[in-house]
Structures are given as structure tokens and as C-alpha cells.
Amino acid sequence: MSNQILKGKKGIIFGALDERSIAWKTALACVAEGAEIVLTNAPIALRMGKIKELSVLCNNAPVIPADATSMADLDALMQQSMEHFGGKVDFILHSIGMSPNVRKSIGYTETNYENFLKTLDISALSLHRVCQSAMKADALNEWGSVLGLSYIAAQRTFPGYNDMADAKAVLESIARSFGYHYGFKKKVRVNTISQSPTVTTAGSGVSGFDAFLTYAEKMSPLGNASAEDCANYCVMMFSDYTRMVTMQNLFHDGGFSFTGVSTAIVEDITKANS
């Protein structure tokens, strides 16, 4: 049931690829809550995905191609978005992540460093670029909200997550550092959401993903948070209800992040050893 808590707000959604994407579901949730949006992704992702279908579902939201590793593309995106809206935006979702090492099944200790630099560039430094471009263009209204999507592998080791773990750690650090400067300068807040393992195109590419999905479900008191749940959390973070929250990494994982071990896991190990 919609409460229209984003009525009158305008935003940019990065990273919607298909209906499994958190960005896709967030776009739908934002529009359902009264927001107007612009959709964007890298040109190659636009060709591979279904973003035109999403545009129709979001009241024919404009789709503006932008490579988040290109300042020229991002600067153009900010200007075109403001021209479309006739003014500044109120929120930005950074839902961007890709690792060539993961895609090519290159193990962490055998890391290809050119690939590693691409991982950092695409998955982490792009948040800095987005914020820098938005600040330079004065594209965000005061009390605007920028969100990046992260994962607990930024704090704890999950071997199959590979160099994406390092990228998420950098992403969270950028949110804190840029959040400090953006807050003082423009009263814009910058946060990350550390989501449960989620069945998306990107998440499913991680080695051992299905097994870990089951493990996380058994470890989390509330179970894994779904992509729809994450979309609703993003809506709250874009709303005026959270205007004093900034520079935070917010766990949205059913309690996984603060659970040492669960009864279900102990029972599974006991059965396996009996």
C-alpha cells in the first residue's frame, strides 16, 4: 500500500538491468510512492537488459545512457536529468558492481590486477564520480539522498566474493568521506545499504552463491531480506523521514550481521557429525 512518501521528489536510478535487479525494484517502488525518475546504465548494459520495459512501467521515465566510469557521461547525465525535471533532483541510487575476475573465475590469490583495477573503478570509484559530478553541477537539492548498495563482505571474509569484497570496502569508505563533505556543503546525505545475499544477475555470478544463500537464510533471525524489501528500505532512505542519517553503512540483512551462530546451523552441524 502506497503512502506517497516520495510525492514531488525526483531521482536518478543507476543499474537496473532486469526484473531481478534491486535497482529495477527500487525504481518501481519509488514511482509507486510518488517520485519521478530518470533511469540510467552503461550503454552495453542498456543493450543487454530490459530497461525499456522498466521505463514503460515507470510512467515512461527517460532512459539516459551513462558509463559511470566516465566523468563526461556523468556530467551529461546530470545536465540532461535537470533539463528533464526542470530543476534539481532529490535522490540518486548507485546500484553498480562488476568484477572481471569473478566473471572469469580467477581466484583471489591469483588476481589479475588489470581486472582488479576495473573492479574498483566500476564498483567503487564510480560512487565518488557520481557524487563529484552531482556536486559540481549542483544537481541535488538540500537534504537530498545518495545511496550505494554494499555487502557484508566489506567487513568479513567470504572467499567466493573475491575482489568485490575490496571494492565494497572502498565503496563504504567513499560514502563516509563524501558524505562528510557533501553534508557540510549542501546538506546532502550519503549512505550505503549492506543487503542480504540476493538473487540478482550480479549476485548469482559469485562462486557458491546458492549454498551461501541457504546458509544466510538459516543464520538470519528474520531470514534473508528480499530485493523488494531492499527497495522499500531505499524508498525510506530517499524520504524526509531519514534526513538526518548520513555517512552510515546500514545493514539490511534480517539480523545476519550480528548473529554469531543460529540454532538451525548448530543442528545441521550436529546431524552431519552424528
Features of the shown structure:
alpha/beta, 6-stranded parallel beta sheet, 274 residues, single chain
The SSE string, one letter per element, is EHEHHHEHHEHEHHEH
Helix content: 40-55%
Q: Going across the biggest sheet, name each strand in turn.
A: 2-1-3-4-5-6
Q: Rg, please?
A: 18 Å
Terminus-to-terminus distance: 48 Å
Beta-strand percent range: 5-15%
H/I helix tally: 10
The strand count comes to 6
Secondary-structure-derived class: alpha/beta
* Count of all domains: 1
Low-confidence stretches: none
Describe this protein's structure.
Helices cover 46% and strands 14% of the residues. The model has no long low-confidence stretch (mean pLDDT 95). It has helices at residues 22-32, 43-48, 51-57, 71-85, 100-103, 113-137, 164-186, 209-219, 227-238, 263-273; strands at residues 10-14, 36-40, 89-94, 140-150, 189-195, 249-252. The protein starts with 9 loop residues before the first strand and ends with a helix. The protein has a single domain (10-273), classed as 3-Layer(aba) Sandwich (Rossmann fold), CATH 3.40.50.720. A six-stranded parallel sheet has the order 2-1-3-4-5-6, sandwiched between helices. The chain has ten helices and six strands. By secondary structure, the chain is α/β, with parallel strands linked by helices.
What's the arrangement of secondary structure elements?
Layout: E1 10-14, H1 22-32, E2 36-40, H2 43-48, H3 51-57, H4 71-85, E3 89-94, H5 100-103, H6 113-137, E4 140-150, H7 164-186, E5 189-195, H8 209-219, H9 227-238, E6 249-252, H10 263-273
Parallel strand pairs: 1-2, 1-3, 3-4, 4-5, 5-6
Helix pairs in contact: 1-9, 4-6, 6-7
